[in-house]
């Protein structure tokens, strides 16, 4: 039988702080996006992930991996973005079973308007609280933890 490796006091404090940040960060970013752009964080993140892809296009399967959404939930999100004429789905010309999500010209315009406020909020919450050295350390530490989580795809900038 394995012996439980309990967290010490400092580890517990660190774990609880990490949990709180991972819980509150999406809430605060969602508030800003809704107030400034009338869009929730999941929809914005989906649009942003496609914008980072080659030619602003991703298969729905790849987009589901990058956003950590089930195919059903992603379909609803992309449907909302399509209603706003920000994204479109089209069958892949090489594999008609696959749908490609792509950003429309209006989607690019939307991101041009929404991204500055979103980036400013991220800067206020994360980077304004840290020195440049601390920000670099945070990035390094987050990537170490992320690798342990073994996601199917790693986030890219």
TrEMBL record:
One of its GO terms (molecular function) is DNA-binding transcription factor activity. It comes from the Bacteria. Gene3D superfamilies: Winged helix-like DNA-binding domain superfamily/Winged helix DNA-binding domain (1.10.10.10). Residues 1-147 form the HTH marR-type domain. Pfam families: MarR (PF01047). GO terms for biological process: response to stress. This is Transcription factor. It comes from Corynebacterium pilosum. The lineage of its organism: Bacteria, Bacillati, Actinomycetota, Actinomycetes, Mycobacteriales. The gene is yusO_2.
